[in-house]
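Look over both lines before class:
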Amino acid sequence: MLVKAREKAARENLCINFCCADANELPFEDETFDAAVSLSALEFSSDLKKTLLDIYRVLKPGGRMVIGLIGGGSAWSRYYEKKAKKDPESVFRHAHFRTLDELIAAMPGKNVQGKAVLFIPPDFNFEDREKALELEREAQRQGREDGGFICALSYKHLK
């Protein structure tokens, strides 16, 4: 993944320093970053709370953390679990799919907010845009939390 990221950054003329590290022991000093964003990566953390605490550690006071995951108990997590059972080489055999409540409970910080989206199943005909939008709107009206993608936001306390 780092090779692909470096190649893409070079193509886009972006000056980015990439590093490979254990997410539970980030190689940065306390209060280094204004924000931290992780999308579809922490499914592979065996101890989500520990990982999130280390991300929180490197945030500056007032900094924010945004975490997005494939939602546990969703049609999408079942799809990836099924895929992993069929293919022993699948990266998803190492995944831990959490629910929105589990993600919010693990998030350090204040004013934690969360939301679930992507209620359209993987086998949906994505060419039917209006039907997709209606399914999403209806799921939101119902207050469903079993979306295929879940996201949480928290802020680090000011000193």
Q: What stands out?
A: The chain has a mean pLDDT of 95. The two ends are 36 Å apart (CA to CA). The chain has five helices and four strands.
